[in-house]
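Postdoc handover notes: sequence design on the structure in folder B. Input tokens:
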């Protein structure tokens, strides 16, 4: 009030002087100039604070992502060797206690991986999501992995989590990261609404050209049903943050999420396009791995034994290039997580060398890597990108497909050379 009153008095005095001896422009413009200067200074200070806060947020995000990236190495080592213990149980049987310990290791690694992916997604949420990369993914195995990640939470809540046996054969065409995010959100929603003593079950089946996963929550007999259904009285899907995310993820992969009625009550059904039949796997003679991750080397040696091919290991890009030039392997796997720049340079040098120009190169990246980290790798000319933790089935199919493609390219080149001769 004082400021406006003072300005009003100033204008009144200016008006009287104008009546007696003409206006004074400098005195009339002084309050306006002062106000403009004050606003300009305040705006500049606000912009400086905004830039400082943005820089601090960027630094915190970069630190968190770097920390998560460094933690994934030991975590994948733990997960990889635990998987090897389970995979080799047929040829090297474990005692019941050892089998239980290996199972708990896999569960703990899956839970930590899920938490780290959530933390990475939250810290990098302001950036655009990478485009979907659909491939063959076994939905039953993916559901088992998601259940393992939430096992301890279900145990603490007193809810039984039944995801069925980890058998293979029901494959959907979907993005692995989006499938895991959708399954975790679907199970998490059930756990949040279930009461102690309830049982959450996941069933996977094939219906025509779709692979469908049904989530059902069972309440013990004699007890009123708890408020666990995500379906209203008319059978429509209730809106919610968690289920809304599942629905958006499913739709981005050509699927959907719908409520259904079962004998036990209402349930939710996640439907995804079924994958085509697996292509026959041609013989791979030699593969080269450029990296030093112990668990990955052990897993790749196991895959090499199953597919009957030899595996050579080079710990540096320079050694990998020398071995690729000398051995001409059917495929090269490059660990691109620690040094993406070195991986891209190796790919360019192999593409420029006539001895290795037809050798397919696969980059191994982190599942929680932000889009800005994976985009340069996709643009560097790699023939395929695989994310950790490695899916052995997807790895075997990728190796076979790339080796077949390279063989066809070499045969076409030889035929052209023979025609010219």
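Designed sequence:
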């Amino acid at each position: 009030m004082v400021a406006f009153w003072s300005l009003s008095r100033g204008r009144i005095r200016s008006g009287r002087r104008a009546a007696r001896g003409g206006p004074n422009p400098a005195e009339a413009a002084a309050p306006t100039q002062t106000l403009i200067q004050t606003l300009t200074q305040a705006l500049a200070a606000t912009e400086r604070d905004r830039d400082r806060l943005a820089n601090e947020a960027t630094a915190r995000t970069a630190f968190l992502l770097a920390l998560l990236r460094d933690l994934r190495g030991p975590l994948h080592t733990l997960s990889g060797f635990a998987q090897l213990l389970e995979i080799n149980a047929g040829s090297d049987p474990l005692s019941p206690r050892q089998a239980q310990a290996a199972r708990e290791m896999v569960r703990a690694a899956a839970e930590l991986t899920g938490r780290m992916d959530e933390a990475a997604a939250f810290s990098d949420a302001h950036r655009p999501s990478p485009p979907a990369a659909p491939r063959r993914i076994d939905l039953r195995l993916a559901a088992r992995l998601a259940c393992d990640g939430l096992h301890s939470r279900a145990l603490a809540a007193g809810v039984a989590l039944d995801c069925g046996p980890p058998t293979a054969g029901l494959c959907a065409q979907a993005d692995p990261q989006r499938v895991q995010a959708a399954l975790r959100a679907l199970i998490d929603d059930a756990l949040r609404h279930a009461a102690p003593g309830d049982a959450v079950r996941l069933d996977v089946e094939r219906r025509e050209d779709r692979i469908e996963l049904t989530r059902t929550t069972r309440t013990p007999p004699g007890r009123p049903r708890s408020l666990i259904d995500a379906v209203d009285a008319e059978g429509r899907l209730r809106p919610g943050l968690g289920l809304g995310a599942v629905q958006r993820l499913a739709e981005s992969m050509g699927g959907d999420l719908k409520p259904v009625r079962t004998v036990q009550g209402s349930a939710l059904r996640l439907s995804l396009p079924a994958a085509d039949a697996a292509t026959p796997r041609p013989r791979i003679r030699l593969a080269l791995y450029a990296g030093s991750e112990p668990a990955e080397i052990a897993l790749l040696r196991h895959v090499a034994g199953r597919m009957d091919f030899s595996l050579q290991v080079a710990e540096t890009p320079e050694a990998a290039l020398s071995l690729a030039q000398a051995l001409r392997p059917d495929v090269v796997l490059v660990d691109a997580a620690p040094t993406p720049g070195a991986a891209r340079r190796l790919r360019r040098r192999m593409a420029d060398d006539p001895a290795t120009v037809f050798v397919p190169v696969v980059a191994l990246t982190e599942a929680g890597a932000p889009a800005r980290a994976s985009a340069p790798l996709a643009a560097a000319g790699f023939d395929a990108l695989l994310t950790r933790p490695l899916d052995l089935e997807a790895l075997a199919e990728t190796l076979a497909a790339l080796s077949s493609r390279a063989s066809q390219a070499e045969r076409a080149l030889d035929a052209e050379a023979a025609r010219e001769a």
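Context for whoever picks this up: Residues 363 and 385 are 5 Å apart (CA to CA). Don't rerun without checking with the PI first.
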